[in-house]
Amino acid sequence: MADLFKTRVMAGKFRLLILLTLFIIVILARWIGNKAFTKHEMRYDPVTVMTNENPSSRSFFENVKSVVSPVVQTRPVVSSLAWQAMSVDRPGGVSLNQTQDVVLWRSIRKGEIPIYRVPVFTYTPKGNLVAIAEGRRISSKDFNPKIFEVRRSTDEGETWSYPQRIVDDGKSPIKRSSYIGTIFVDDTTATIFLMYVFCEFCPTRSLMLMNSTDDGITWGRPRNITDQVGKEYATHPSPGNGIQKKQEPAKGRLVVCGHGFYNGKGLVLLLSDDHGVTWRRGAFVRSQPFKMRLKKGAFDPDECQPVELPDGSIYIVVRNEKTYKKYHCKMIMRSFDGGETLPQNYTYLDQALIEPRITSGLWYHDETMFYSGPKHDTNRRNLYIRWSYDHGKTWTSEKRIWEEPASYSTLMMLPHDKRHLYILYERGHKTEIDEIALTKLKISSENDRNE
């Protein structure tokens, strides 16, 4: 009987030892798993803050150190050889002087269309100007039913046509509405395009494309191109300009940058190699994590504006929606293959371009890159145009356009007029969406002033 009792005690102790061992193994496995996951997260750092050296040669911890340290002189993540090839010495530089200011839309906050917002702007194949804005029914909220109105100028902005409606949601339910997007020109076929999204907050959104072949006077019916790019990449074409590449690689390609998807955040480049007949997706950059609701500080590239540089690469300025790494400044991305990819090691935060989470204008002309946006980290006011002589490496000059509240803006130049820059933007005295105005600025160079 005593032996049986001793056997049971030993068996109980053995079982307890086994359970304790299993518990230790489980704890150890979870610790190792968490450590491996943390290392994986550390290896995937989508954005690097601009510094004076190439972060691709540093460890992750060195990159983190550069993030938390103040940066005075900023520089993108490119090799020194690349910058030597791109940089251009400009001993004189340019200045901007206002020559014209006109209000194109006013938000009267009553009647059928109380609010006008989100202007887009382009030159036309015949050298005229076309501006389009959203008219929002009910209130200023994004999800209200809308109209799109077009105004044209044939005398370089001196006078403007009466507004013409080209899209009208009618009295559709809230959220089942259109959202203005990207305007661009195919110079080969003399066609103006407007790409936008319908029902952005619906489970299935529609990517729409419409065009004008008579210089913006009349517009065809919108066509749904969602099936061409795929449901997963039916994005919101960002307010601003698309581009047609003038240099290789992919000369003649149409490129549109869009943000947001039905099931997550991020950006995508949409590409057409047959003058807008068919479209496909190119580079795709996910938010981290890839989902609809993200916490502050997450990697969330949003509204984006591309330009082509002389070497054929594409430079994109991106809204930093969740203030990644708690920086209130623009993200920059680059493509060197016509928009097929956006390499991670050419993605960075440009601390010189502070922003209050907003879409901004971008235009490249004659070795000068112009940028427009509020020069404030949290408030939409104090709108500036800034410019760079070294393809966005440094921003050395600026001009204030509007000191009071101001919001979305877009930049443009006429192909035949190299002496004037136009900015179309939201502004006001009480709020930043009181009106949509056009300001025309004369570009003067040091040589002009010395003559």
Automatic annotation (TrEMBL):
It catalyses: Hydrolysis of alpha-(2->3)-, alpha-(2->6)-, alpha-(2->8)- glycosidic linkages of terminal sialic acid residues in oligosaccharides, glycoproteins, glycolipids, colominic acid and synthetic substrates. Keywords: Carbohydrate metabolism, Cell membrane, Cytoplasmic vesicle, Glycoprotein, Glycosidase, Hydrolase, Lipid degradation, Lipid metabolism, Lysosome, Membrane, Phosphoprotein, Repeat, Signal, Transmembrane, Transmembrane helix. GO terms for biological process: ganglioside catabolic process; oligosaccharide catabolic process. It is found in: Cell membrane; Cytoplasmic vesicle; Lysosome lumen; Lysosome membrane. The keyword Phosphoprotein applies. One of its GO terms (cellular component) is membrane. InterPro entries: Sialidase, Sialidase_fam, Sialidase_sf. It holds the Pfam family BNR_2. Residues 127-416 form the Sialidase domain. Its EC number is 3.2.1.18. The keyword Repeat applies. Gene3D superfamilies: 2.120.10.10. It is a peripheral membrane protein. It is an enzyme of class 3 (hydrolase). The chain crosses the membrane at residues 14-33. GO terms for molecular function: exo-alpha-sialidase activity. Interacts with cathepsin A (protective protein), beta-galactosidase and N-acetylgalactosamine-6-sulfate sulfatase in a multienzyme complex. Catalyzes the removal of sialic acid (N-acetylneuraminic acid) moieties from glycoproteins and glycolipids. To be active, it is strictly dependent on its presence in the multienzyme complex. Appears to have a preference for alpha 2-3 and alpha 2-6 sialyl linkage. Belongs to the glycosyl hydrolase 33 family. This is Sialidase-1. It comes from Branchiostoma floridae (Florida lancelet).
